[in-house]
């Protein structure tokens, strides 16, 4: 499982001209799922995500987590995080989980985050989404479950 986490001032996702998810200060997270992923892996990733201390404290040090700043989450499914570009110029996505499994784990992640974070917004699985954000820093962290 891969999470690309961007600390944002605000972010939104639009489908067919309608804003379906919008947050203020917090994390916009792109989520990629592969075949070997399961709920145990998702639990570890969510725990790490929620606990990341990448917001600045009163001294300008990155010591504060999402809860400390009243941060919000925008969670977006993105199978292209598992693109394999080793051969040729057209990426292969064989390493991404099948859509049924990926959507089930994506929804599981959303439900687990909602247990811990007051505002959790989401994209639409499989849709053509337009994501807008104002990256704060910029600060972008990549979490890969194989490295945890």
Question: Nutshell version of this structure?
Answer:
The protein has two helices and eight strands, in the order βββαβββαββ.
Describe this structure in words.
The chain is of the alpha/beta class and 148 residues long. The protein has one domain (2-147): D-tyrosyl-trna(Tyr) Deacylase, Chain: A. 20% of the residues lie in helices and 39% in strands. The protein contains two helices and eight strands; from the N terminus they run βββαβββαββ. It has helices spanning 39-51, 99-114; strands spanning 2-15, 18-23, 26-32, 55-56, 62-64, 72-77, 120-122, 129-144. The strands form two sheets. Strands 1, 2, 3, 6, 7 and 8 form a six-stranded mixed β-sheet that branches. Strand 6, helix 2 (99-114) and strand 7 form a beta-alpha-beta unit. Helix 1 crosses helix 2. The longest helix is centred in the last third of the chain and has 16 residues, at 99-114. The termini are close together.
Short descriptors:
alpha/beta; D-tyrosyl-trna(Tyr) Deacylase, Chain: A; 20% helix
Write the layout of secondary structure elements.
Elements: E1 2-15, E2 18-23, E3 26-32, H1 39-51, E4 55-56, E5 62-64, E6 72-77, H2 99-114, E7 120-122, E8 129-144
Parallel strand pairs: 3-6, 6-7
Antiparallel strand pairs: 1-2, 1-3, 1-8, 4-5
Helix pairs in contact: 1-2
